[in-house]
Each structure stands twice: as C-alpha cells, then as structure tokens.
C-alpha cells in the first residue's frame, strides 16, 4: 500500500456511525476534520482543503452555517438591500434553511444537503418559486463566503437551481383602475390609491412619504425613503431600493385635489385624537399619527376594495405595473 506523503491528509470511515471523515493538518499544527455521508464527498473536501491550506486560505476558524447565515443576513443583506428583500431572506434562513442545515459547519455543506432541503420543501407543498428563492439565498451567501475565504468552493454552483415557472403578471386596464378609484372615493386612504394609480409609487415609498416631501404649489413630490416593519424591531425607514428610485414625481390635478382633501381629513383626525396624536409628519398614517403597516394596507384594506369593486385579486405591486403598462400604451 502506498504511503501517504506528509501533509496529504487522510480520509477514513468512522466505526460508530459509518460516516466518512476528512482530516488534514493545518499550518498552526492543529488538525481539521470534517464529516460526510460518502467517501467521495470526503475525498473531494480533503483535496480542496489541502489546496486551500497550501495557498494560505485554510482558516483556523470553521463557522457553523447557522452563525454564518445569521451574521451574513444582518451585516451584508440588511444594510445593502431593500426591507422586503431583507425580510424575505431572513425568513427563508430562519424558517427553512437553519432547521435542516443549521447544525452543519460551513465547510461540511454538500450538494446532497441542498438537494435534501429542496426535496423536503417540495414534499411540504412549497411552490417552485419558493424553493428557487432558497437556492438564491444559499448561492448568494456561499458566494460571499468564498470571496471572504471562509470556504474554498460554492457547492450551490454544482446544483442547477429549481426552475421558476414564468407566471403572467396581472395588470388592471385603465378602465379597471378608474373603477378602483371610484370605489375608494371618500375613503380616508383615497389619496394613497390616487397616487399609486397616477405615479406608480411603491408600497413602502407611499407608507414612508412625509408632508415635507410634498410641494403642492410646485405640483410635485420627492421620493427619498421607504418604510417597512422588521420583526421585533418595529418600523424602519431606509433609502429607496436603488439610486434611481430617489426621484421627483409630477403630480396630476387629480392627485393634487386628493392630497388637499386628505390633509384636511387628517387635520380633523388630529383634532379628534387630541393628546393621543403622535406627530410623525407622515402623509399616510393611522388615526393616531403612527405608521401604517403593510399588513393592514394589504389584508384589511386593499383586498376588500378589490372585492367591492369586483376586480381581479391583483397584488398591490401589480398596481405599479398596471400604471407602467398604461403609460407605455
């Protein structure tokens, strides 16, 4: 039997559970061991670790997937992405990825683990688009881990992502948008719907709009923040999604009239609330001046309006695309 060279590392099967162990000596004199289900996976990891060690990229620290993803989503995604993206990533990691894979060390993660995760979610009835998003999250996190030299390869590269089914987006016709505005007339949030139907503003941009952003005399408003809610932290205001999202919009005559009526209505609500009013300069707020939650807007207001108007159950974001389609027509 050929003798191994010094520093070559070793692969052996552990007797108590049949797992395959890849072992390699580090430059600091300690020994790094990783556990795998198959001999093939252990050999591949051992060989990659030898190359990484010889290149000075095999670190003494070996973070768990739980620690890595939890830190990554808070320190990398949250400061650089929109609130919606951060919340989607955080929820996918916390609810779906960590319960199955959180116990693994980062370097132990294999293609087999990802396949098992996706199969588990598929068996639980998850949509293909949801599984594809899990793959997107893991691929992004592992790509950064490779860049930071925490691991030597991105195992998600070796797995084809679940195919997203191309779904046709629902949009409302100009007549249907007019029907929606007719139904919402006189409602305390009428101006919100007028703005989305005439400017295409995003939900978070509308919820974060302040009166100081609105210049009725100049017939314009400035979009410079978005407002969202983060679990256990409450409402958070952040810059718009992209640099181009910070923009000045021209107001139509319909929007100006709606905003004037809305401000009068809000001033009356403030008088009624008395000392209970919490001034935050928000254009769209609760009857006490506090921020409106997206959940309230979507589930308790918008969907009911669609039912009353006899319109398709489009998403609030679809209104934005409806306006874009109408402007391009």
Automatic annotation (TrEMBL):
Ranges where the Tyr recombinase domain occurs: 167-329
Membrane-spanning segments: none
Domain (Core-binding (CB)): residue spans on this chain: 63-146
Gene3D superfamilies, alphabetized: 1.10.150.130, Intergrase catalytic core
GO MF terms, alphabetically ordered: DNA binding
PANTHER family reported for this sequence: INTA PROTEIN (PTHR30349:SF91), PHAGE INTEGRASE-RELATED (PTHR30349)
UniProt protein name: Site-specific integrase
């Amino acid at each position: 039997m050929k003798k191994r060279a010094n520093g070559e590392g070793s692969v052996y099967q552990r007797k108590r559970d049949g797992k395959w162990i890849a072992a390699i000596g580090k430059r600091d004199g300690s020994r790094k061991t990783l556990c795998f289900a198959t001999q093939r996976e252990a050999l591949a990891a051992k060989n990659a670790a030898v190359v990484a060690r010889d290149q000075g990229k095999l670190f003494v620290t070996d973070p768990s997937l739980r620690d890595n993803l939890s830190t990554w989503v808070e320190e990398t995604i949250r400061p650089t992405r929109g609130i919606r993206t951060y919340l989607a990533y955080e929820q996918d990691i916390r609810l779906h990825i960590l319960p199955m894979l959180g116990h693994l060390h980062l370097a132990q993660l294999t293609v087999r683990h990802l396949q098992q995760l996706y199969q588990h979610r598929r068996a639980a009835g998850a949509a293909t688009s949801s599984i594809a998003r899990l793959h997107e999250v893991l691929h992004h996190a592992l790509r950064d881990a490779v860049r930071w030299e925490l691991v030597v390869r991105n195992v998600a590269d070796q797995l084809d992502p679940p195919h997203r089914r191309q779904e046709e987006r629902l949009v409302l016709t100009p007549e249907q948008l007019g029907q929606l505005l007719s139904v919402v007339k006189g409602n305390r949030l009428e101006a919100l719907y007028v703005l989305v139907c005439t400017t295409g503003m995003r939900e978070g941009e509308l919820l974060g709009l302040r009166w100081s952003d609105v210049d009725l005399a100049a017939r314009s408003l400035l979009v410079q923040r978005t407002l969202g809610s983060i679990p256990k932290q409450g409402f958070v205001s952040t810059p718009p999604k992209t640099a181009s999202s910070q923009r000045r919009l021209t107001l139509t005559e319909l929007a100006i009239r709606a905003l004037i009526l809305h401000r009068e209505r809000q001033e009356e609500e403030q008088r009624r609330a008395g000392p209970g009013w919490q001034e935050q300069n928000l254009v769209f707020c609760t009857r006490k001046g506090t921020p409106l939650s997206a959940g309230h807007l979507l589930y308790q207001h918008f969907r009911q309006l669609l039912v009353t108007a006899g319109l398709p159950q489009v998403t609030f974001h679809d209104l934005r695309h409806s306006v874009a389609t109408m402007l391009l027509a």
